[in-house]
Specification:
- The structure is a single chain.
- It is built from 7 helices and no strands.
- It has helices at residues 2-8, 13-21, 28-41, 45-52, 55-58, 75-86, 91-108.
- It is elongated, with a radius of gyration of 19 Å.
């Protein structure tokens, strides 16, 4: 998201905003204060962002506590932990093991 904004804004505007003000806030009150600041730093950024995604998809304040305070989930860590046990297998067996384990995780969740 940061890279996409960077490509469409003046050089340095959005990255410094992301770095220093962290507008993806944990509470609705902080979010409501930070969004107008985004408009000051990068005019049109709010409209651009909200046209593409709803706030539930990118703001912790609106995620309904589904992310448990995390901005990202790391599925690669899960796959890495799975593949540690299967690394000595041939490639086809490794791919099958990963496929069936991930399928089981999907069904359970």
């Amino acid at each position: 998201m940061k890279a996409d904004f960077n490509s469409k804004s003046k050089q340095g505007e959005v990255p410094s905003y992301f770095r220093h003000t962290q507008f993806i806030r944990e509470t609705v009150e902080k979010y409501d204060v930070a969004i107008p600041n985004l408009e000051e730093v990068c005019p049109g950024a709010k409209a651009e962002l909200t046209e593409r995604l709803s706030p539930e998809q990118w703001a912790l304040a609106h995620d309904g506590n589904l992310s448990w305070g995390k901005l990202t989930t790391n599925s690669f860590e899960s796959v890495n932990s799975l593949s540690k046990r299967a690394r000595s297998l041939p490639v086809q067996a490794l791919a099958s093991a990963i496929f069936y384990r991930m399928n089981a995780w999907f069904v359970n969740r």
